[in-house]
Amino acid sequence: MVWSQTITISPVARTDLADKPFPLCYRRGMTASTDMPNGFDAENQHWISVRVYYEDTDFTGLVYHANYLKYFERGRSDFLRDAGVDHQSLLNRPDPAAFTILKAEIDFKQAAHVDDLLRVRTRFIGTRGARILFDQTVLRGDTVIAQAQITALTIHADGRARRPIAEIVEQLQPLIYQISAE
Question: Would you name the residues annotated as active-site residues?
């Protein structure tokens, strides 16, 4: 015997909101909990917001350590996309290219919890040969949760290392973060 059930969900009309302006906190690049937009700031630091969901946590309700790599990946991907470099266009080139991670050095400072709103800061440090260097931080408010130094490698579509594509390096050059004594 097979049992099935169909559930129909209907949207509820919110007539009480009809005359209200679209809240500033819900405009593109904003979140309800912060007024800091996603994207680049005046210091060439790139920011994204990440909400911690139950699926991100271990049995204690803290973010599982490997998920910080996912947050850092999202930060780098959005950095590149907002800088005009998207992964699909790299693969569609006559000389297809991609990025892979060569080294990830992470310092865990605090724990993040379910429902936390985190900010991922990505700083492009520059290139060295085929390597692309990033400094990344996950913050909850002003509290540093985790810091990472990431070394990415430019590769051919078959996985062999290659020098970064000259026009992409030129495109990213103005976005190099100038490291100062913090």
Answer: 58
